[in-house]
Amino acid sequence: DGGITQSPKYLFRKEGQNVTLSCEQNLNHDAMYWYRQDPGQGLRLIYYSQIVNDFQKGDIAEGYSVSREKKESFPLTVTSAQKNPTAFYLCASSMFVVNTEAFFGQGTRLTVV
Amino acid sequence: GQQLNQSPQSMFIQEGEDVSMNCTSSSIFNTWLWYKQDPGEGPVLLIALYKAGELTSNGRLTAQFGITRKDSFLNISASIPSDVGIYFCAGQRGQNSGGSNYKLTFGKGTLLTVNP
After folding, report:
1. Is B26 helix (H, G, I), strand (E, B) or coil?
2. B103–A98: do the CB atoms touch at under 8 Å?
3. Is A46 left (phi over 0), alpha (psi -120 to 50) or beta?
4. In this complex, which of A56, A97, A104 lies closest to B43 when CB atoms are compared?
5. DSSP 8-class letter at A52
6. Does A113 reach chain B within 8 Å, measured CB to CB?
7. CB contact under 8 A, A42 and B95
8. pLDDT 10s digit of each residue in chain A, 113 long?
9. Residue B89 in contact with residue B108, Cβ under 8 Å?
């Protein structure tokens, strides 16, 4: 089945540790995105990538890093510099960046203790 | 970043009732999308709108792209218990607007509760 797979579903980490969230898509989409969702809030864009080996900061990129070495994969690293990392993280992809629908993965809930 | 004002924030309705929600912006958008999110899951795309004035249906859902391009509406008819969830609007200004304005901007969501 075609789709976007995020793993793991739940992740627990100690404060001060870096953690990497996985996102894989087999939709042959060029563009991929990472969003953060907090309770009662809309989705806020962390990073996006239009093409392999290229990515751009979104609205809340501080404390996060990404890579796009393959078209299918767009991992997100939450670094120790992120002051409030506990949140629900959503990965999405779209055919292109302009005027096309974004499809989401099932999300990863990160809890930092 | 840009803001989308989505209302209402929450709704409590009886099964069988119709529901309306909307999003407004001070900026023009060239694409409007409506998503539904179940608890602990990713949002699922319901309807996409690309033309001002466009009215599109998906089963019991109907969405409209406002004629001013600054708003959009979603209606759900004859609600059922599985309609429960958070509904998000999202807008995209499009590349013609310059720079990185092809990013999606999301509203804060409308939480819908349906009482059987």
Report:
1. coil
2. no
3. alpha
4. A104
5. T
6. no
7. no
8. 669 999 999 999 999 899 999 999 999 999 999 999 998 778 999 999 989 999 999 999 999 999 999 999 999 999 998 989 999 999 999 987 665 788 999 999 999 98
9. no
Is B102's CB within 8 Å of A98's CB? yes
Predicted pLDDT of residue B65: 96
Position A29: which residue type?
Answer: H
With CA atoms as reference, the chain A residue closest to B34 would be A101
Tell me the count of A-B CB pairs closer than 8 A. 64
Chain A nearest-CA residue for B4: A42
The residue in chain A having the minimum alpha-carbon distance to the alpha carbon of residue B89 is: A42
Tens of pLDDT, residues A14-35 = 998 999 999 999 999 999 999 9
Cβ-contact B24, B32 below 8 angstroms: no
Cα(A48)–Cα(A68) distance, rounded to whole angstroms?
10
Looking at residue A4, its pLDDT comes to: 96
Residue A17 to chain B, least CA–CA distance (Å): 24
Tokens representing residue A112 in the block:
């930092």
Rounded mean pLDDT of chain B?
A: 91
DSSP B28-69: --SEEEEEEE-TTS--EEEEEE-STT-EEEETTEEEEE-TTS
Measured CA distances, A66 to A20, A55, A57 (Å) = 9, 8, 9
Q: How far is residue B89 from each of residues B3, B94, B104, measured CA to CA in Å?
A: 11, 16, 10
Say yes or no for a CB contact (<8 Å) between A58 and B48. no
